[in-house]
Amino acid sequence: MSHQETDISRRQFLGKAAAAGLMIAPGVMLYKVAQARAPEMPASSSNRWGMLIDTSKCATGCSDCVTACQTENGWGGENSNEVHSAPTQQAHWIRKVKLTDKQTGHVQSLPLMCQHCENPPCVDVCPTGASMKRADGIVLVDKHICIGCRYCMMACPYKARSFIHEELHNQIPYAPRGKGTVESCTMCVQRVDNNGTPACVEACNSEGHKAMYFGDLNDPSSDISKRLKEYGATEIRADLELNTGVRYQGI
Question: Is 62 a domain residue?
Answer without folding.
Answer: yes
